[in-house]
Amino acid sequence: MAIDVVNALNWAIAKDEPLHVALRGLSGKRLQVVLPVLGSLDWEIEADGLLKEVGLKNQYGQLNSAGSEGCGRAPDVILTISADLSRGPRIEGDAMVAERLAPLVKLIKDRFSPWEHFWSQSPAGQLARQAAEFAVHEAEILVSRSQIHEHDQRLRGFREALDRLEKRIDALSRA
User: Do 95 and 157 belong together in one domain?
Assistant: First the structure.
């Protein structure tokens, strides 16, 4: 799948001459695209202005491609795409490189926007949202974010109480 994404983007870059020329000036720069749930794609801009995949990691940090050479060097720009594609991506890293990558970011967003619109308006998307709502609220198969947060707070309180108990035991053992 990652190779297909790179090929599709490279095809679009080659068709957009101003973008292609702009990316030639960023030869050797690395871009990491973090996708919700899937993980991250690491790309390097080659001298010809096209993208080369240098890594693909899932959400657990496991490398899924032969691009192990990309793991040694940090990306110049990290582009984090939200699960809600209607929101803009979060961009971190070298500001100059990020600014020059703006047309590429726009290209990526434009390529994914129709899919987000289709999914949000389609019966399949509505069915998926209803199924998720049912699984969380009715069947209680899944937990909501508020339930996770509440559980985390209870665990934190338990850990603090345990720490206090250990300190009391230590104080009593010294006495």
Answer: no
